[in-house]
Design brief:
By secondary structure, the protein is of the alpha/beta class. It contains ten helices and eight strands. Helices cover 44% and strands 16% of the residues. Helix 2 runs parallel beside helix 3, helix 6 crosses helix 10 and helix 8 packs across helix 9.
Length: 281
């Protein structure tokens, strides 16, 4: 009999839609997933979703990579729009706070407030996190590299090394993080190669893990043809070239193969604290 510990995880997409920072959603989702052995969520966090246009963009992402949808939206119109679209796609849409809020309101005999992010105090730390989230979203996947010098952290890595979710997690800690992919045959922009202020961290992973994640990604897009993107030899070469680049530039490197997003972010925060001459977090 095959040892379950030696089996690969079952990957699935989970979409977290929030009109606030999404921290509550992330915590509940990860606590839930921890109860199931052998599964690994591919996390998609959509924070500060507060307009129909924003939700339309989110739904396009969900349609491209179907999976479980969990949300915290106060606006009734947005909730109805999300639930209707998910029903059309045959996807579960879970309002994670509704059971607790309904029971609490019934017990207290008080109607629920409709304030977005009402659980948060609007202090300097909160606004710092919002600014960091906005920065992460505006500088994701190599966008606006000319502004990367303003970042606290820049993540570099081949496709599917968890760059975006790690940036979002760091943003929730008030860290302005940008990221850019290493594309085979394409050089990184000088804006990235010559960074001085930010901490630049290279993310890598075992080639076989990357191939599996990439294949799952293609399947979610209804694409099952063999391509260079999932060729084991080419992916191995990608990781080797990436490691050589990190070493040549003197960038810190983190292997995310067996690390959760939180663990990778914790390591990055430690590196950032060392760079700033602060105590290790």
């Amino acid at each position: 009999m095959t040892d379950p510990k030696n089996q690969f995880s079952i990957y699935f997409h989970v979409h977290l839609v929030s009109d606030s920072t999404g921290e509550t959603l992330m915590a509940v989702m990860r606590a839930s997933v921890a109860q199931f052995r052998g599964v690994s969520p591919i996390e998609h966090l959509y924070a500060l979703v507060r307009s129909p246009r924003q939700l339309d963009r989110v739904m396009q992402e969900i349609e491209d990579a179907p999976g479980i949808v969990m949300y915290t939206l106060v606006n009734n119109e947005l909730r109805a729009q999300l639930e209707a679209r998910c029903a059309q796609l045959g996807l579960p849409a879970i309002p994670i706070l509704d059971p607790a809020l309904t029971s609490m309101g019934r017990y207290l005999g008080i109607e629920m407030s409709s304030r977005v992010g009402a659980q948060r105090t609007l202090d300097a730390e909160y606004y710092s996190r919002i600014e960091a989230l906005n920065y992460a979203m505006a500088h994701d996947d190599g966008a606006n590299t000319h502004e990367f010098e303003d970042a606290d952290v820049v993540l570099v890595g081949v496709s599917r090394t968890s760059k975006t979710p790690t940036c979002i997690y760091l943003a929730q800690r008030g860290i302005k993080a940008a990221n850019i992919p290493i594309v085979p045959g394409a050089a990184l922009p000088d804006d990235v190669l010559n960074l001085r202020k930010p901490l630049v961290v290279g993310l890598t992973a075992a080639p076989e893990r990357l191939v599996q994640i990439r294949r799952n990604r293609l399947l979610s897009l209804h694409e099952d043809r063999s391509t260079d993107y999932v060729d084991e030899h080419l992916v191995k070469d990608e990781t080797i070239q990436a490691k050589r680049l990190f070493a040549r530039k003197g960038w810190s490197m983190i292997d995310v193969t067996r690390r959760s997003i939180e663990e990778s972010a914790a390591k990055i925060l430690n590196l950032l604290a060392d760079k700033r001459g602060e105590h290790t977090l």
